[in-house]
Design a protein that fits this description.
- This protein has three domains: 2-156, Rossmann fold (3-Layer(aba) Sandwich); 158-235, no CATH class; 237-335.
- Helices cover 50% and strands 15% of the residues.
- It is built from 17 helices and ten strands.
- The chain has a six-stranded parallel beta sheet with strand order 1-10-2-9-6-3, with helices on both faces. A two-stranded antiparallel sheet has the order 4-5.
- Helix 6 packs antiparallel against helix 7, helix 12 (256-269) packs antiparallel against helix 13 and helix 14 runs parallel beside helix 17 (327-334).
């Protein structure tokens, strides 16, 4: 089994599609880290159709189809959701949450690329995903013949990948700042609660915040309580817009959580070269090299997602004192 981050999983799967490797792939990972989202993104970026089948929600006849009598002989009519032509990804999600009878039918599709009279078109990749037993998921053991026909990939969740996604999709900067401060709450399964933090649930939390609602239903009471305390600290921060406009008089906070909040907020809200310059100058003058590094790295990540990383280079080349204050920023220039 090969272990990959979410970002590297996308690159790996994209290479399989470009090389036309038709062997089946099984993706293992904890619930809520974005396995199905990555597969969907690979299909979209490579102009492939995408069919997502939640195997645990089906009965055997849903895949095999229903019998139809013709001249005294039963013919199996395959379901309409299976592909008939073209190119794409046939994705079986929650494959090991399905009972053995369903896995048996899926096994025919995965092993033989056909079930009954139905055959998977040549241009279709067959991939699957499932959760691990250690994630407290209600899973069944995968039959050895089925398991042995897959390439097995195990996906891990990471803050850097989530931040890239969050920045790209304009997730509330309070969520990004909070997870910078409490990265262990990005993904923390709680088997005693139906709600617990995961990348998927933090994205859903953003929807609740936009509706001015508490995020407890998404990430659970414990994580939500910590997030609310963090948001109270957010309200005590200096006026971020004034700093970005050039007011460098405010003091840098003393409390650790406030330092995380301010450095991340400055990075996320810097939209122009002038604002980037003012944000970095403020942190360089009022903070320490650690926080200057953190702010610069976040700015670099944001600009890189928007194909604008050259703007940070431009700013730094015109502000020599920033390069002298931080070796990490100098490394960004080389990168």
């Amino acid at each position: 089994m090969k272990r990959l981050s979410i970002k590297k999983l996308e690159d790996y799967l994209a290479k399989l599609t470009k090389a036309n490797v038709m062997d089946s792939v099984m993706i293992w990972g904890a619930p809520g880290i974005g396995k199905s989202s990555v597969v969907s993104a690979v299909a979209n970026k490579n102009n492939l159709e995408f069919i997502d089948i939640r195997l645990s929600q089906l009965a055997p006849t849903d895949i095999r189809g229903l019998p139809e009598p013709r001249d005294g002989i039963s013919y199996w009519c395959p379901p309409e959701f299976l592909p008939r032509s073209g190119k794409g990804i046939l994705f079986f999600d929650e494959v090991n949450m399905a009972p053995p009878a369903i896995q048996g039918i899926a096994q025919q599709l995965i092993l033989d690329r056909q079930v009954g009279s139905y055959k998977v078109p040549d241009g279709w990749f067959i991939w699957a995903a499932g959760n691990r037993k250690e994630d407290h998921a209600a899973v069944f053991d995968m039959p050895a013949p089925l398991s042995n026909r897959f390439f097995h990939l195990e996906v891990t969740s990471g803050l850097d990948e989530f931040k890239e996604y969050a920045i790209r999709n304009e997730i509330d900067d309070r969520i990004i700042s909070f997870l910078n401060f409490r990265p262990n709450l990005l993904h923390k399964i709680d088997k005693n609660s139906p709600s617990w933090p995961s990348p998927r649930q933090w994205v859903k939390s953003n929807n609740l915040l936009q509706a001015d609602l508490d995020i407890d239903p998404a990430v659970g009471g414990a994580a939500a309580a910590e997030f609310r305390s963090f948001c109270k600290i957010y309200k005590t921060l200096p006026d971020i817009q004034k700093i970005l406009d050039g007011d460098l008089k405010p003091e840098f906070p003393e409390e650790l959580s406030a330092k995380y909040a301010l450095s991340c907020a400055l990075a996320l809200r810097s939209k122009t070269d002038k604002q980037i310059t003012n944000a970095l100058k403020f942190v360089a003058q009022k903070g320490t090299s650690e926080w200057l590094n953190q702010c610069a790295i976040d700015i670099f990540s944001i600009l890189k997602e928007k194909n604008r990383s050259h703007e940070l280079v431009k700013v730094l080349q015109s502000q020599k004192e920033l390069l002298e204050a931080s070796r990490q920023i100098a490394k960004l220039l080389v990168a």
